[in-house]
Design brief:
Blueprint lengths: L3 H5 L11 H34 L2 H21 L3 H8 L8 H28 L5 H5 L1 H26 L3 H26 L4 H26 L11 H35 L2 H34 L4 H34 L1 H15 L2 H17 L3 H54 L1
Helix pairs in contact: 2-8, 2-11, 2-12, 3-5, 3-7, 3-9, 3-10, 3-11, 4-5, 4-7, 4-10, 5-7, 7-8, 7-9, 8-9, 10-11, 10-15, 11-12, 11-13, 11-14, 12-13, 12-14, 13-15, 14-15
Length: 432
C-alpha cells in the first residue's frame, strides 16, 4: 500500500475529486486558523502599542508574565479539551453534564495551577518574582490563568462542532479589547508598568470567557452552564484526555518556557525582542497545529477515513504554512520597525530563522495526529518529551552564548531532527 509520505510526492496541492468531506475539513481548518490568527494578529498590534508607549523592560516583564500564564493554562487543561472532542459523540443527545463538568473541572484546575506558579515565582525566580510579590498582580494572574484555560476548552468544543466562526468571534472580540485597553490605560491613567499591560490581557481573557459560555449555548440548543462536577465524568475526562494532554504539553511547553528563560538568563529587554519574534512566527506555526487538531477531530468522527484525512491535512498544512511563512518573512521587517528600530535590529533575523520551522512542524504534527487517532501515544509522548526538553535546553544554552539568533538556529535544528524521527514513525505506523 502506498504510504502517506509517498502519496504526497508530486502532489502537495489539491484535494481528491469528489471528496466533499475533505473540503469540509479544509473549510473547518481555515476558519479555526482564522480565529487563531485573529487572536495573534490583534495581540501583535497590542504589543506594537505597548512597545511604543511603555518602557522596553516593562514590555519584557509583561510578555514573560503572559507567557507564564499561557503555560499555566496548558498545564491546567489535563487533557479535558481533547477528551471532550472524543467523548462528545457519546453525549450528543444530552451534552449538559459533560460540558458542565468540563468547565467546572478546568476552573478549579486553572486556579490551582496559577497558585502553584505564583509559589514558584515567589521563591525561585528573580525578574518575574514581582508577579507573586504584588497581591493585585497575583490575583490578575490567577484570573487570566482560569480564563485562558477555559478559552482553550471553548476552542476545542467549537472544533468538535465544526464551528470555526465561534473561534473567530472570540478571537476578534478579545483581541480588540486588549488592543484598546493597552492604549487607554497608558493615556488615561498614565501607568507604564508591566502590570498595566497585563491588565489589558486579563480583560481580554474575560471577554473570551464570557463569549465562550454564550457560544457553547448556541452550539448546543437548550444548554446553559451550571456549576456542577460529576465524579464519574471527571474521571472519564481525565482518563481519556491524559495521554493527549501529555502529548500536547510537550508540543506547547517550549514556546511558553523560552520567554521565561530569556527573561531570567538574558534580560527582560532581550525577552521583549524574542517574544515579539516568537509571537509573529507562531501565527504561522498555528497552521500545522490547528490542521492537526482538526484532523484528529475529523478522524474521531470518521475513523475509516484516517489515511485520507491525514494526507489532506499534510498537504493543506504545507501549502498554507509555507505561503504564510514567505509572506511574513517579507512583511516582518516593516512590522518590527513599527515597534521601534531596536526590535527590528534584534528580532528580524531570529524571525526569519524561526519561520523555516513550519515545514518540520507539519510532519511532527501529522505524526502526533495519527498517534492520537490510533491511540498509540506512548512513542509519540516519548518523542515529544525529548523534543520539548531539547527545545528549551539547547536554545537556552545557545542564547547565552550567541544571543537570540543563536537561540533560533538551535530551536530550528531540534525541530528538524524531530521531524526526521516523526517521518520515520509515520512510515512505520502506515505500514503496520
Amino acid at each position: 500500500m502506498t504510504t502517506v509520505i509517498g502519496r504526497l510526492r508530486g502532489r502537495v496541492v489539491g484535494t481528491r475529486p469528489g471528496t466533499n468531506d475533505s473540503r469540509a475539513i479544509l473549510v473547518s481548518s481555515v476558519a479555526l486558523i482564522g480565529g487563531k490568527v485573529a487572536t495573534m494578529g490583534f495581540g501583535f498590534l497590542a504589543w506594537i502599542v505597548a512597545a511604543r508607549m511603555y518602557p522596553t523592560a516593562e514590555v519584557g516583564l509583561a510578555s514573560g508574565a503572559v507567557a507564564a500564564v499561557t503555560l499555566c493554562a496548558q498545564v491546567a487543561l489535563i487533557g479535558v479539551g481533547s477528551a471532550v472532542i472524543t467523548l462528545l459523540p457519546t453525549f450528543q443527545a444530552r451534552p449538559g453534564r459533560l460540558l458542565d463538568t468540563a468547565v467546572s473541572l478546568l476552573t478549579v484546575s486553572g486556579l490551582l495551577t496559577a497558585l502553584a506558579f505564583l509559589l514558584f515565582a515567589g521563591t525561585v525566580l528573580q525578574e518575574l518574582r514581582v508577579v507573586a510579590a504584588d497581591p493585585v498582580y497575583a490575583v490578575l494572574f490567577a484570573v487570566l490563568a482560569v480564563a485562558g484555560t477555559l478559552g482553550v476548552l471553548f476552542d476545542q468544543a467549537s472544533t468538535a462542532r465544526r464551528r470555526g466562526n465561534q473561534v473567530l468571534l472570540r478571537g476578534v472580540a478579545a483581541g480588540v479589547t486588549t488592543l484598546l485597553l493597552v492604549a487607554i490605560i497608558a493615556v488615561a491613567f498614565g501607568s507604564t508598568s508591566s502590570q498595566a499591560i497585563f491588565v489589558a490581557w486579563v480583560v481580554g481573557g474575560l471577554v473570551t470567557w464570557g463569549l465562550g459560555l454564550i457560544t457553547l449555548a448556541r452550539s448546543f440548543p437548550g444548554y446553559r452552564y451550571r456549576p456542577r462536577l460529576s465524579r464519574q465524568i471527571s474521571a472519564d475526562l481525565v482518563r481519556v484526555g491524559m495521554p493527549n494532554y501529555l502529548l500536547t504539553l510537550t508540543e506547547r511547553a517550549p514556546g511558553f518556557v523560552l520567554p521565561i528563560v530569556v527573561t531570567e538568563l538574558l534580560s527582560p529587554a532581550d525577552n521583549a525582542h524574542w517574544y515579539i519574534a516568537w509571537m509573529m512566527a507562531w501565527v504561522v506555526f498555528v497552521i500545522p497545529i490547528q490542521v492537526g487538531m482538526t484532523s484528529f477531530a475529523e478522524i474521531s468522527r470518521e475513523p475509516a477515513r484516517l489515511r485520507a484525512i491525514l494526507e489532506h491535512g499534510i498537504r493543506s498544512s504545507l501549502v498554507m504554512g509555507v505561503a504564510a511563512a514567505v509572506g511574513l518573512a517579507i512583511v516582518g521587517g516593516p512590522a518590527l520597525h513599527l515597534l521601534g528600530s531596536g526590535y527590528a535590529a534584534a528580532g528580524l533575523t531570529p524571525l526569519w530563522i524561526l519561520l523555516v520551522g513550519v515545514v518540520p512542524m507539519t510532519f511532527i504534527q501529522a505524526y502526533f495526529s495519527l498517534s492520537r487517532a490510533r491511540r498509540e501515544l506512548g512513542p509519540a509522548i516519548a518523542l515529544g518529551t525529548v523534543n520539548s526538553v531539547a527545545s528549551i535546553v539547547v536554545p537556552g544554552i545557545a542564547g547565552v552564548a550567541s544571543g537570540l539568533a543563536g537561540m533560533a538556529v538551535a530551536w530550528l535544528a531540534v525541530q528538524c531532527i524531530t521531524a526526521v524521527a516523526a517521518v520515520w514513525r509515520l512510515r512505520t505506523l502506515e505500514s503496520a
